[in-house]
Amino acid sequence: MAEISEIICVTCPKGCTLRVKHEGKQVLEVLDGCKRGEEYAICELQDPRRMVASTVRVDGGLHPLVPVYTKQAIPKHLIPELARALRNVEVPAPVKINQVVLADALGTGIDVVASRDMPKAGA
Amino acid sequence: MKSNYDVIIIGSGPGGLAAAIAARENGADDVLIIERDIELGGILLQCIHNGFGLQLFNEDMPGPTYAQYYIDKVKDHGVETLMDTMVLDITPQREVFAINKDLGYLDLQAKAIVLAMGCRERTRAQILLPGARPAGVYTAGTAQRFVNVEGHMPGNKFVILGSGDIGMIMARRLTIEGAEVERVLEIMPYLTGLTRNYVQCLLDYGITLQKHRTVNRIIGRDRVEAIEAVTVDEKWQPVPGTKEIIPCDTLLLSVGLIPENELSKKAGVLLDPVTNGPFVDDRFMTNVPGIFAAGNVVQVYDLVDWVTEAGFTAGKGAAQFALSEKLETGEEIPLIAGENIRYVVPHKLDKSHLAEEQVRLQMRAIVPIEDRVLVTVEDQNGEVVAKKGEAYARPGEILTLAIKPKAYEAIQKATSLTVNVRKR
């Protein structure tokens, strides 16, 4: 059964609402928007992904936390599980930018890395 | 340390960092950044989410990564830095008074100054929120610093007032950290932040946004226990019969930003009542010779990339001023906000500058136009000297237009320039 769903496109700041005609995950037609919007709608219906940014604990750092992010977008449904996994991560100071703090997160093949240097306290 | 500098920069956010780099690259030898925090980087360090750098790097970076790129560059450029140092006063003669725990009271002289203090959040006092005054009411940015830098959770159950970007980003962040976000309330009939953030921060996490609705009253004696929400009409008056008590222990306010200009005023810098920032020329020099301003201290930007660009312009101007004790100026003409334009930055244009390079104008629309628009720059006779098409114009997104050197001839006849945005 074909149905029509509305998806707000976030490819550019304009933020168009796209109507997508689809059968389950099979996109039949994207009724509004541009070429990039069409690609977004298909991706959003079949395999929605997001970049995730969070923090992990640092032992002996200038601050108690270091900010981290996923090197690539991960499947949206894995976000809560990734958040829980990151709560158990602690790294010793100093931390370097791009240092992997959680390799192959949840078996996605995607690393979680530090988004800045975190020097030792008092250094 | 030295007491005389070519350029002193106050603040080390993206505007200050870029100004320092540009000052060194344009011949200033002694460049000093004064920062009140314990490290360089400013507010970017607590903006751990992605979405920075798309304009300048064509890359999607988290805030701290964007900051570090310029922090590393500042260090490579031999810029002196003074951290944990508060500037108390600056004078029109470019004397800077500051205080530091180890060095004590500092009296420094600069040939040029760049103001890069950024902006501050509006607080409860500024939006006149009635009700009790318990603990648990924070600005969104303060909560952001607690959660992302200092490692404290300010509460368990949140209501957020304001659909600005920081508010929505914090709604997502708090949810990821295990808190409940009960509601986001927006007094305006439209979203005030970017649609992208509505989708990725609220919709993705099933957080409800209610428009035309605000906090009527805060309830709780020692700690917030609930807030009373109410629908408002077009004049922001409460609509009877629409009250709802929402239990929560924390209220976050994301209700706007104001350029931080207390120091600027002390130095005699004149402020534009529309932007709350200094009047500036196209080199970002204020009305006080040798005092420049860059970034959110001038106007509240929506993209950090533009702040960096403004910092480069101001830093270059400051270096040129420091080396020559003045800037060679040609004839300056005013840039005027015309049809559906709230303000234009810069406020003045030196006609001779266009001979060498383009000058970027930035403005905000007054009312949204959800249709193709044309931004025009017209001289006093209505002659169009520059124009640019856009897919739409919204008050929440800055419009930019560069006047190119090819407009040099046309501009020589102009005595003023007016910027307009109209439906095509």
Structural key phrases:
A: 123 residues, alpha+beta, CPE0013-like fold, 5-stranded mixed sheet, 3-stranded antiparallel sheet, 17% helix, 36% strand, B: FAD/NAD(P)-binding domain, FAD/NAD(P)-binding domain, 5-stranded parallel sheet, 22% helix
Distance from N terminus to C terminus of chain A (CA atoms, Å) equals 64 Å
Which regions of chain B contain 5 or more consecutive residues with pLDDT less than 50?
A: none
Beta strands of chain A, count: 10
Number of domains of chain A: 2
The tally of domains of chain B stands at 3
Briefly note the structural class of the backbone of chain B: alpha/beta
| Poorly predicted ranges of chain A | none
CATH architecture assignment of the largest domain in chain A: Roll
Classified in CATH, the superfamily of the largest domain in chain B is: FAD/NAD(P)-binding domain
The CATH architecture of the largest domain in chain B: 3-Layer(bba) Sandwich
Give a written overview of the molecule.
The complex is a heterodimer of chains A (about 120) and B (about 425). Chain A has about 120 residues and is an alpha+beta fold. Chain A folds into 2 domains: about 5-45, no CATH class; about 55-115, Roll (CPE0013-like fold). Chain A contains 2 helices and 10 strands; from the N terminus they run βββαββββαβββ. Chain A has helices at about 35-45, 80-85, and strands spanning about 5-10, 15-25, 25-30, 50, 55-60, 65-70, 75, 90, 100, 110-115. In chain A, the strands form 3 sheets. In chain A, strands 8-5-6-10-9 form a 5-stranded mixed beta sheet. Chain B is globular and about 65 Å long. In chain B, strand 1 (about 5-10), helix 1 and strand 2 form a beta-alpha-beta unit. The model of chain B has no long low-confidence stretch (mean pLDDT about 95). The longest helix of chain B has 21 residues, at about 305-325. Chain B has 3 domains: about 1-120 and about 255-325, FAD/NAD(P)-binding domain (3-Layer(bba) Sandwich), CATH 3.50.50; about 125-255, FAD/NAD(P)-binding domain (3-Layer(bba) Sandwich), CATH 3.50.50.60; about 330-424, no CATH class. Chain B has helices at about 15-25, 65-75, 125, 140-150, 165-175, 195-200, 260-265, 305-325, 410; strands at about 5-10, 30-35, 80, 85-90, 95-100, 105-115, 120, 135-140, 155-160, 180-185, 210, 215-220, 225-230, 245, 250-255, 255-260, 290-295, 330-335, 340-345, 350, 360-365, 375-380, 385-390, 400-405, 415-424. In chain B, helix 1 packs parallel to helix 8 and helix 4 (about 140-150) packs parallel to helix 5. The termini of chain B are far apart. In chain B, the strands form 6 sheets. In chain B, strands 1, 2, 3, 4, 5, 6 and 17 form a 7-stranded mixed beta sheet that branches. Chain B has a 5-stranded parallel beta sheet with strand order 8-15-9-10-11. A 5-stranded mixed beta sheet of chain B has the order 20-18-25-22-23, with no helix packed on it. Chains A and B meet through strand 5 and strand 6 of A and helix 2, helix 4 and helix 6 of B.
